[in-house]
Amino acid sequence: MELQDLDHHVHIEGTTIFDGEMAMKGYALNKMCFSFNKAVARDAYLADPEAYMEKFGLNEDQKQACRDKNVLAMIAAGGNIYYLAKFAGIFKLSVQDVGAQQTGMTTEEFKEKLLRQGD
Amino acid sequence: MAKIIGGLTTSHIPAVGNAIANEMYDDPYWKPFFDGYPPVWEWLDKHKPDVAINIYNDHGLGFFLDKMPTFAIGAAHEYVNEDEGWGIPQLPPFPGDAKLSWHIIEGMVAREFDITSCQELPVDHGFTVPMQLFWRGAHANPDMPRAIPISANTVQHPIPTLKRALDFGKALRKSIESYPEDIKVVILGTGGLSHQLDGERAGFINREFDTYCMEKIIDDPEELTKITRMELVEKAGAQGTEFLMWMMMRGALGDNVKALHKNYHIPISNTGAGTMLLECEGVD
């Protein structure tokens, strides 16, 4: 029996429950993103992303998701949004930019969607 | 003896840190949010608490997935606000109260909450934004109290249940009230309310659920313990699970509280932002 066969969760549309299974899957990616708390690490990534990803042992799916700056792919590869936010920070992406990318909108459209919920 | 005088809740959205740094208090986007704070300032000005217990959730600065405490309590003389990676201005260290911390830690473990004690704990926006919101000018404000951070895990499931969070608060109350010094303590419950940053459901906000939580938490927090964790994710959004901090705060206030003030505004950044001032019984 695999860990994923032990059903602890319900399915919620458009939502990944970041549990033990995801935490193991995404460990290398999240560990790299955690390092981005420090400016020296952010600079090292920008200077040579491939070498930096290799140093943390990212798998090919994780590397490709980072190269593409594709947030949904990073989540599918085990990324946790709190750590991915630090990756996004390197490229000065706001949480609205990240939300827009994941929902297939422009940032302006996404901001509009947020505002409408206040009506 | 130590006395808990009340509880304050607020969202702790990082963008607020930038808005404060840029003094955007009268900006049309920010005004309805910042207008929620003056009644809290007045109350704090009147009561001048000595210590703030700041219940927040770390967002990947103080803790990583290598070791993830479910409940962690600061036991340091001061708490450093480090670089979080995306450019909120860093603040000077926040003075702690290590003696009270260890008294609380002793009390919590005696009451069977097996917490993680932290002699070093870099604090992120979850801790710093509320300090800035409640004590204008933060370090420049002579009334800013000593602070003790308590962090609960909402990064990785399994997260604590709502009942466990409320019970944590109840044990925290006893652990504080048994402290022999005559100090006034305020409890901060920070984070929330509904929001989701990740996935195709990013941008989800739920006014109806937030309103229900803000009503029930005043007089009937036990009712909220019926909400399962998966229901909380579904109704509050993946990061709306930060409502657990509000439950921990509420547990520490005792059975009866007076809601002196509340404010709710959508959106601040991606979030339904809620602020409350709850006063404990026997405080005037």
TrEMBL record, chain A:
Name of the top EC class for this enzyme: oxidoreductase
The keyword Oxidoreductase appears for this protein: yes
EC number: 1.13.11.8
Signal peptide, first to last residue: none
The keyword Ribonucleoprotein appears for this protein: no
Pfam families per UniProt: LigA
Domain annotation Extradiol ring-cleavage dioxygenase LigAB LigA subunit: ranges: 29-114
Top-rank lineage group of the source organism: Bacteria
Any one Gene Ontology molecular-function term assigned to this protein's record: protocatechuate 4,5-dioxygenase activity
SUPFAM superfamilies registered for this protein in UniProt: LigA subunit of an aromatic-ring-opening dioxygenase LigAB
Protein name: Protocatechuate 4,5-dioxygenase alpha chain
Native source species: Thalassovita gelatinovora
Gene: ligA_3
UniProtKB/TrEMBL annotation, chain B:
Record organism: Thalassovita gelatinovora (Thalassobius gelatinovorus)
Lineage, opening ranks: Bacteria, Pseudomonadati, Pseudomonadota, Alphaproteobacteria, Rhodobacterales
EC assignment: 1.13.11.8
GO molecular function: ferrous iron binding; protocatechuate 4,5-dioxygenase activity
Gene: ligB_2
Name of the protein: Protocatechuate 4,5-dioxygenase beta chain
Region forming the signal peptide: none
Database matches in SUPFAM superfamilies: LigB-like (SSF53213)
InterPro entries: Xdiol_dOase_suB
Pfam family, one: LigB
Keyword Oxidoreductase: yes
All residue ranges annotated as the Extradiol ring-cleavage dioxygenase class III enzyme subunit B domain in the record: 8-272
UniProt keyword annotations, A-Z: Dioxygenase, Oxidoreductase
